[in-house]
Amino acid sequence: MGSATLYHLAKRGVKVAGIDRHSPPHDLGSSHGATRITRQAVGEGAAYVPLALRSQQLWRELEAERGVSLFEQCGVLIMTATATATSHHGRPDFTRATLELARQYGIPHEAWEGAAIRQRFPQFRVADDALGYFEPGGGYLYPEACIQAQLDGALERGARIYTDTVIERLEADGQGVRLHSAQSSWRAKRVIVAAGMWSAELLGAPFDRLLRVCRQSLHWFEVADPALFPSDSPSFILAHGSGDSDLFYGFPPLPGENAVKVATEQYTDNTTPIDIDRNLHPGESHQLFSDQVGRWVGALSARTVRSAVCAYTVTPDFGFIVDEHPALPGVTVVSACSGHGFKHSAALGEALAQRMTTGHSDIDLDSFSLARFG
Ligand SMILES: Cc1cc2nc3c(=O)[nH]c(=O)nc-3n(C[C@H](O)[C@H](O)[C@H](O)COP(=O)(O)OP(=O)(O)OC[C@H]3O[C@@H](n4cnc5c(N)ncnc54)[C@H](O)[C@@H]3O)c2cc1C
Question: Where is the secretion signal located (predicted)?
Fold first, then answer.
């Protein structure tokens, strides 16, 4: 969120600085791990669809500007593997909600029953009463490359970047905002805070009451049968029950890699940026494979070739917060993107830059206001 916002502000000629406690792209926050799914019909709700569509255009523009590859449009397949109702990111019946939005927005797609899914993509062992939504316009992004390209584009346009600099405190001073690190301080007319899982500790109330950090783990399982799981497979989300964790998602093998990245989600164990356990324990991969992946996906072996830990920062309704800080005039907060933010980040950065420079954005961000939490 920070690199996108910096880039779009710099593009508009704003005198802007980006400050980060680490050196992005890094693997200590929520934007690492090689890939992120992007979808056009966003089952989390209609308010996200314009952001996803605009972001896809912006990634393509950024690719052309920087001469890099950011977005693989391999399609996305969302499956309800049995007739059981499913939930994803707080939305019940996620596959049907996605289908309805695709129809509403005229997004190209196909709806399949179980046999059609198995025929087209035999690596998925779904039941006959499964429901599949296939969207050819979806796929995946390379998050680290997206961040780097935006930082490079911002630097080239005169933005300043301060890395390894922790902002400890923000203070409104009437005309602007003061930012304090242990060593120095800055004054800015406006500040946009995109601090991911550190947001609550930096922003205080009411964010400390609204945001939870949930540790997530990523697992790269070896492909045992490459013919059954080719690299032109779609990204996928497979739900097979009604619990938040009765679901996993994954990606095709990346070029040159004989492994498929897969992850589930958990929302029960909360942590903090300090306490988060960044080590992945062998039992975690084994459990994901035996409980979920091995049962529903063929062609993969239980051997993990790589793993990583990441964090979701979630709000009570699993939606975004993009709003002004109620107690700090001049401070806008974007983040807490509840585990589904990356695909929208380019358009959010653009919308925030529009808001800062013109007072309004082309895409309506009202659905992400704090007011909904009372
Ligand atoms: C495992 C996993 C899988 C995901 N899958 C998807 C997906 O498939 N599709 C999708 O769209 N989204 C996905 N998401 C969500 C998406 O990746 C995140 O919503 C998004 O990347 C979060 O970006 P952010 O900028 O809010 O946070 P971050 O990338 O964590 O950035 C926050 C930055 O703020 C800096 N910072 C924090 N505090 C301070 C401070 N006090 N001073 C200075 N700097 C500070 C940090 O160093 C960091 O660089 C996934 C997330 C995870 C964890």
Answer: none
Q: Considering only CA atoms, which of 89, 85, 1 is closest in space to residue 349?
A: 1
Q: How many helices (H) and strands (E) does the chain have?
A: 10, 22
DSSP strand pairing (17-19 vs 160-162): parallel
pLDDT, tens digit (0-9, with 9 covering 90-100), for 250-288:
999 999 999 999 999 999 999 999 999 999 988 999 999
Question: How many Cα neighbours within 13 Å face the side chain of 118?
Answer: 12
CA of 341 to the centre of ligand 1 (A): 8
Burial class (CB in 10 A: 0-12, 13-18, 19+), 173: exposed
Instruction: Tell me the C-alpha distance between 216 and 67, whole Å.
Output: 32
Residue nearest to atom 19 of ligand 1 (CA): 341
Q: Where are the domains of the chain?
A: 1-71+138-203+325-361, 76-136+212-314
Q: Which CATH number is 1-71+138-203+325-361 given? A: 3.50.50.60
Q: What is the pLDDT of residues 208-235, one digit of tens each?
A: 999 999 999 999 999 999 999 999 999 9
Could you tell me if the CB of 218 is within 6 A of ligand 1? Answer: yes
